[in-house]
Amino acid sequence: MNNIVMLIRREFWENRSLWIAPLVISGVLLLSAALGGIHVGEGNDISIGFLSPAERENLVDVDLPRSEQRYAKTLAVFTSIQMFTLGIAVFFYLLDALLTERKDRSILFWKSLPISDAEVVGSKVLTGLVAAPVYVLLVSAATHILFALVWSLRSGGPPDSEMLAWDGSTWLQVQAAFWMLAPAVIVWYLPLAGYALLVSVWARKNAFLWALLPPASILAIEGLLRQSTHFGQWLLDRFVGVFRIVLSGPDRSASDEELGELLRRVGDVFTDTDTWLGVLVAAVMFVVIVRFRRYRDDS
């Protein structure tokens, strides 16, 4: 366990984009809010950008229930933007994780220590799929609180300044919703993480191109020979399928009943056959990656 913790700390130190990128996104969101670049409009639409005076006049008045609903959705949009940014950062981190240590020869140092290949590979998986998302959720929660402060300072300014207000109960419900959703997303994306690491441990250079080549080739061959898009549809479902399962159903404002329904939908992810097929594939990839790293010699 001590080795794993040490290795995860090393990953964050050597890959600073994992913790800097969420802070930058938070700063951009807060600055946008401070300068009047966040607005809520008809149908609970949330926009990030600057509106002209004429566009601001089109913003609707809000009653209390709708205001709370818009507040919850604004917080959810903030967290979603940060998680999406993290997803991109983690993808490139995993693609580079096992390639860089061979390029700079640091793998020789780590192999000289009493640390197994399984611990090294496992630490990279835990960093990208567990530690980094937990960090982003904590940063996002703090961003929501700072956003409430910024928004309160703006009250009496733009016409839409009273549309959103701090609501402790709604804030807690939004945090609970994302913390419940996180395990399902982590498990769902295990095979994609395994694929990125497999490319990283195999490629001698240009891991990004090697990661894109197989799916792009299959898409092209299927399109030319079969005039179909079955692989593309399957690939899209592997990327967004967890959200299709979780978000299916009526759209309601945050409440205790909503959280209970979300928990049930998260449970649906863990009872879905595709989830556990993905876990099985990821486990096989993990074994292959560990053995490949153990015997790989680029000298």
Descriptive report:
The protein has 299 residues and is mostly helical. The protein has one domain (2-295). Helix content is 76%, strand content 2%. A two-stranded antiparallel sheet has the order 1-2. Helix 6 packs antiparallel against helix 7 and helix 7 runs parallel beside helix 11. Mean pLDDT is 82; it is low at 49-64 and 157-162.
Low-confidence stretches: 49-64, 157-162
- End-to-end Cα distance: 31 Å
What count of helical segments does DSSP give? 12
Relative strand content: under 5%
Can you tell me the number of structural domains? 1
Summarize the main sheet: 2 strands, antiparallel
SS-based class: mainly alpha
What is the gyration radius calculated from CA atoms? 22 Å
Fraction in helix: over 70%
Structure summary, number of beta strands: 2
Q: Give the SSE order as H and E letters.
A: HHEEHHHHHHHHHH
